[in-house]
Specification:
40% of the residues lie in helices and 25% in strands. The chain has three helices and four strands. The chain is globular and about 30 Å long. It is α+β, with helices and mostly antiparallel strands and 77 residues long. A four-stranded mixed β-sheet has the order 2-1-3-4. Helix 1 packs across helix 3.
Length: 77
């Protein structure tokens, strides 16, 4: 599984990245977590607000601050 956090480096983007890393660790998943800050690559996902969470190339959330439990639910789906 590949999980990407799309964001340009704002505090919300950094917080989501840390939350995702914590969720992956707590679940015991072997997912790779990537922080994508390249605006041209982010634009390919057609998201209008950041941060965005992408799991296996599918945007599952955009523009929302997610809790640890919400991230875990997305990962386990």
């Amino acid at each position: 599984m590949e999980i990407k956090v799309l964001g340009t480096g704002c505090p919300s983007c950094k917080a989501l990245y840390e939350t995702v890393k914590q969720a992956v660790e707590e679940i015991g998943s072997d997912a790779s977590v990537i922080k994508e800050e390249d605006l041209l690559k982010i634009m390919n996902y057609n998201v209008l607000s950041l941060p965005a969470l992408v799991i296996d190339e599918k945007v599952v959330s955009a523009g929302k601050k997610l809790s640890l439990n919400e991230v875990k639910k997305f990962i386990n789906q």
